[in-house]
């Protein structure tokens, strides 16, 4: 076994935007004994998690749970609904949108990548207007699906999914609507049914606070209908056999039992806190982070305040400073991991995750670590960000107290 003696005391600060820290309650739930996946108790567990997860997606329709990372659920969404050579319209919001597009090419689809020029696409959300115009121009209805990323984890931008739905409707276009909310789910409001999404893709290791290893496809009746005629090859990912087995709480193969215990626990924790409270907590922590970043005099990667991500904040560094060198100092001196710049943003920024099992003091310690690291790396900062973050968080705490007393 490798010895992780780099983390000698206290907790490692895992402030990357997924995997996020796993709460002790969830780790304990995972330590229950592994049971027979064809036995009677398993069916009860299966039905419980299949039902519970619907509340998180805000759907009445089936949610498929795969023993796979989010990337697998991306493939499942495409391969169950589309046929070789189908045109799909995707939007360039960042690295994850780019990877999903690359997968579409590899599967034999014909993706068209809409986006703002240069790096602008990576600093703004999905432009619903551009999607509407493109769909209106598609008189022959060749585009079979529109695919967008809800929370672009590589940049810290949360796009308006309801606006994309409206754009598709305004164009009167029959394309399916596929959304990746792998890092948005259980951090920021998401409404699978109300927003008319056909397949929502998500994963376990971000807002759900689970370890990596399970992922989801939330379906619509239209998506299920489409899967009956879609011709892309699929076997492991095929919805039909899974839906059949799920009726009684089972899977056609061995699911990851202990992660399902964890999922059950996570759903209970999230629903006990209340989804709206979970979203408000993420909004608050994100706002405190942005106040600190502004006090430092650094730039937030997301340019449009309407689409600031409640999940993570991308911080740009001044020209000539290698963001990865700053991250390395923070990792080695303060035992904290920050997200690196991906793709076009490599070395130019880092990402502070404030998702999942995170509260005011977790965030303040995180910001203190970032600030100390910036100073050690010789990044010129205007002033400490700590007073700004602390003032905002204490203000918010007093608002909550007043509300509780009223
Ligand atoms: C994490 C993430 C993925 C990839 O998920 P894996 O579990 O790493 O396969 C895809 N899209 C987004 C938006 C993500 O945050």
UniProtKB/TrEMBL annotation:
GO MF terms held by the record: transaminase activity
Protein name: Class V aminotransferase
Key words, A-Z: Aminotransferase, Pyridoxal phosphate, Transferase
Family under the similarity heading: Belongs to the class-V pyridoxal-phosphate-dependent aminotransferase family.
InterPro entries in alphabetical order: Aminotrans_V_dom, PyrdxlP-dep_Trfase, PyrdxlP-dep_Trfase_major, PyrdxlP-dep_Trfase_small, SP_NH2Trfase/AEP_transaminase
Keyword Magnesium belongs to the record: no
Entries under PANTHER family matching the protein: ALANINE--GLYOXYLATE AMINOTRANSFERASE, AMINOTRANSFERASE CLASS V
Cofactor: pyridoxal 5'-phosphate
Superkingdom as given in the UniProt entry: Bacteria
Source organism of this protein record: Paraburkholderia hospita
Boundaries of every Aminotransferase class V domain copy: 52-295
Pfam families membership: Aminotran_5 (PF00266)
């Amino acid at each position: 076994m490798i010895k992780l003696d780099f983390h000698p005391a206290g907790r490692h600060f895992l402030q990357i935007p997924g995997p996020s820290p796993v709460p002790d309650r969830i780790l304990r739930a995972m330590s229950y004994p592994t049971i027979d996946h064809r036995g009677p108790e398993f069916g009860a567990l299966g039905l419980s998690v299949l039902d519970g997860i619907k509340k998180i997606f805000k759907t009445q329709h089936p949610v498929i749970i795969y023993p796979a990372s989010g990337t697998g659920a991306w493939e499942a969404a495409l391969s169950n609904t589309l046929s070789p050579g189908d045109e799909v319209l995707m939007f360039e919001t960042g690295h994850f949108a780019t990877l999903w597009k690359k997968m579409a090419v590899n599967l034999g689809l014909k993706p068209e990548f809409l986006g703002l020029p240069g790096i602008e696409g990576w600093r703004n959300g999905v432009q619903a207007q551009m999607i509407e115009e493109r769909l209106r121009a598609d008189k022959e209805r060749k585009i079979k699906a529109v695919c967008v990323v809800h929370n672009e984890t590589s940049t810290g931008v949360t796009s308006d999914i309801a606006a994309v739905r409206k754009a598709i409707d305004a164009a009167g276009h029959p394309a399916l609507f596929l959304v990746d909310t792998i890092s948005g789910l259980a951090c920021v409001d998401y409404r699978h049914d109300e927003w008319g999404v056909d397949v929502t893709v998500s994963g376990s290791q971000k807002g759900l606070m689970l370890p990596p290893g399970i992922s989801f496809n939330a379906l619509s009746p239209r998506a299920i209908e489409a899967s009956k005629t879609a011709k892309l090859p699929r076997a492991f990912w095929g919805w039909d056999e899974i839906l059949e087995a799920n009726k009684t709480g089972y899977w056609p193969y061995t699911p990851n039992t202990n992660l399902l215990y964890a999922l059950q626990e996570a759903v209970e924790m999230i629903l006990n806190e209340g989804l709206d409270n979970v979203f408000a907590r993420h909004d608050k922590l994100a706002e405190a982070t942005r106040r600190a970043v502004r006090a430092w005099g650094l730039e937030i990667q997301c340019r449009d305040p309407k689409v600031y991500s409640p999940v993570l904040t991308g911080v740009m560094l001044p020209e000539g400073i290698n963001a990865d060198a700053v991250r390395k100092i923070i990792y080695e001196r303060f035992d904290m991991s920050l997200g690196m710049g991906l793709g076009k943003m490599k070395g130019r920024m880092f990402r502070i995750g404030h998702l999942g099992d995170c509260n005011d003091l977790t965030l303040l310690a995180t910001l203190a670590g970032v600030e100390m690291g910036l100073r050690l790396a010789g990044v010129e900062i205007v002033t400490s960000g700590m007073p700004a973050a602390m003032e905002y968080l204490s203000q918010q705490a007093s608002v909550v107290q007043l509300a509780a007393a009223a």
